[in-house]
Amino acid sequence: MADEGIAVADRLSDLNCCIDFLDHAGKLIRVRSEVDPVFELAGIARQLEGAGCVLFEHVRGSRFPVLCGLLADRDTVGQLFGLPAPQVPFAIADAVGAWKKEPTAFAPRLLERAPANEVITAGPDLHALPIPQHALKDGGRYLDASLVVARNPLSGELNVSVHRLMVTGRDRLTFLIDPGRHLGEYVQIAEERGVALEVSICNGTGLASWFAAALPRLGDNKHHVAHHLIGRPLAMVRGQTVNVPAFATSQFVIEAEVLPGLREEEGPFGEVTGFYGGRDRRWVMQVKAITHREHPVLHTVLSGPEVWNTVGLTAEAAIYRALKARHPEVTAVFLPPGGCGFYQAVVQVDSPAPGTCQEILRDTFAAFRSLQRAVVVDRDVDIFDPVDVEWAITTRFNPDTGMLILPGEEGHILNPMVTMAEDGKSGTVTKVGMDATVPPGDEARFERVLYQPVELRDYDISGFTPR
Ligand SMILES: Cc1cc2nc3c(=O)[nH]c(=O)nc-3n(C[C@H](O)[C@H](O)[C@H](O)COP(=O)(O)O)c2cc1C
Q1: What pLDDT sits at residue 465?
Q2: 430 exposed, middle or buried (CB, 10 Å; 0-12, 13-18, 19+)?
């Protein structure tokens, strides 16, 4: 499928094609003034968030531009996929399903030379890159939109995940590994063997590999999900100094190794929750080489809608399908921005049988473990509109009969409401479910006021432009 002259597969796998597409579609904002990567860039990006993708053309101290806001608006992501936004989660879930069914459907292509290593820098110098310092209390400059590719030391296969990486020197990074991550397992095995773990850090790879990396707990070769998403294999390029390939279309590749047994200070970092993730002694990477395109663009995200959308788009269809298998009355699932993408689900149902909603709430929590609040609403509620959902809670939720409280459940460690275990690696929280559906048999009392549907384009109206 082609749109604006650039095929979907190209705009999902190559950030340059994606930027060109957005430019043609009138969705690219160019900041031509020189901006300071320390605080100023993110300050501007925050004010422009949702208005379009922002290309910072001149970043002080670096030759390279920065792109931010690629994931801030779901309609834009939908346009890049060539799909209405609500279908994107299903495209991702279908790609996961196809990969699970046929994991070797696409033969991997390993190249010696590719766009990602058009330039091989003489000595690795992270300070030459326009890496921003985002929030005012961040502990340093952060690569926060980069994919870390590593080999499973047991199988030799690849895994890819997104990690925040703080620059602590020209060739040094500290970074965060949350509990349960494959990278954490690999580092632990390498440390037990007393060896470093080689990685390639890929920045600016495009949305197909981005979403594949953000899918948790899939394991070896999950980057093949990206192949299924675009319908052809994404090439990788051999490392210069590490035995780990990088995505061939990356804008920048930072080859590095995780140093065994070493921990250094990382954080604070303005997190997806809207709070700071604290400073602590965390894992360390030594950078061995940096390669990049001839004219690379550094990709960064702002913690907030960009991350909420990433989580929602990778999780919603999976939750929906898990629920639908047990409850045919479920019609849609949304992880709304007010729940930071991770913590709240709105589930829409059609005429549920009495008592079913409590089961649906339990199954929703089981389907996505970081959820802390779930709401079930009727078919007449727009689950994408927070006002409508709030209206349903206010007018249809009866705490005496519709509340589900689950104390002592597993919580997501970034949420400050989670009580952390002593080892700091996990935590618990009380989860709350709300049945905000019309009580069965009481439909007449809860009938929603409706007006005649009209097409405004058909009328001669001045002072108003229909969308
Ligand atoms: C923007 C963004 C930043 C992330 N930062 C981190 C991080 O710093 N540490 C971490 O452990 N997970 C982080 N994650 C989550 C993981 O990358 C993600 O869950 C991944 O799928 C884990 O892969 P795995 O299950 O194979 O370990 C981040 C995700 C996104 C989208």
Answers
A1: 77
A2: middle
Ligand 1 centroid, distance to 124 Cα (angstroms) = 25
Q: Which residues line ligand 1 (CB under 6 A)?
A: 159, 161-164, 176-178, 181-183, 214-217, 301, 307, 310
Considering only the top CATH level, what class is 327-436? alpha beta
For residues 349 and 437, the answer to whether their CB atoms sit within 8 Å is yes
Please report which confidence band the pLDDT of residue 171 belongs to, taking 50, 70 and 90 as the band edges: very high
Stated pTM of the model = 0.95
Asked whether the beta carbons of 171 and 124 are under 8 A apart, the reply is yes
11 CA distance to ligand 1 middle (Å): 23
State pLDDT tens for residues 400-413.
999 999 999 999 88
If you take atom 18 of ligand 1, which residue's CA is the nearest one? 214
Among 134, 159, 176, 178, the mutation site with the greatest number of ligand 1 atoms within 8 A of its Cβ is 178
Select from 152, 158, 162 the residue to mutate for testing ligand 1; criterion: most ligand atoms less than 8 Å from CB.
Answer: 162
Q: Which CATH class is domain 85-295?
A: mainly beta
| 354, burial (CB in 10 Å: exposed 0-12, middle 13-18, buried 19+) | exposed
Domain ranges of the chain: 85-295, 327-436
Tell me: the pLDDT tens digits for 412-433? 888 889 999 988 878 999 999 9
